[in-house]
Fold:
Amino acid sequence: MTEKKLDVSIHYTMAVCGGILGIYAIYNRMSVFGSAQTANLIELVTDLIGGNVPEMLIRAGALAVYVGAIVLAVFLEKTVRFNLKYLAVVLELAVVAVLGFLPAQMNPIVALYPVFFITAFQWSIFKGAKGYVSSTIFSTNNLKQTVSAFTDYLLSGGEETEARKKKGEKAIFFGGTLLSFHLGVAAGYVASVAFGLQSVWLCIVPLSAGLIQLFLQDSLEAGVVAERKGA
Structure:
């Protein structure tokens, strides 16, 4: 497998993990989507206007955790030299391990603080593949890009030019991300029905696969560098 193909495979693998975390939060924590902030910000504003200070503070805490993870990722990207994808996967493994032990009686937002953190960090580090910017933690833009690229491909019918081929490749890439994410959702749902809060440990499978692929990618890159130096 080439480096580029591995890059795409790693991206899809992390999207599977994103899907598992997404359904874990929604199914097990009162339909709260822990991978995004839109609903949290809406609730924060309504709590502020409605004078529900305790709930507003909890929502503000979730926002702070999410923003803090993004700040941390940007800071590390500018200050360290090692591959932060390894750190993201290792941190995610630690978070997943903790999540399975959090009691069901916890406030659902507080219980998802670790998910807010790690999904924001994952999104900041795993930004896409093949030159495409694509989220591995939610689907809105991936859906838009898939539909728009596929529509553009169909409308540019006729001879298979290089430009038309690229539109098809784009549709396939984003469609693959969508499929991977929702395969994770499906697997996570089955696990949630069977195992409840401990279903989040299913993430260990794609995360382990991600680590293996990262090692393979680094080995391939090292081989290419050694070959160039020997040439």
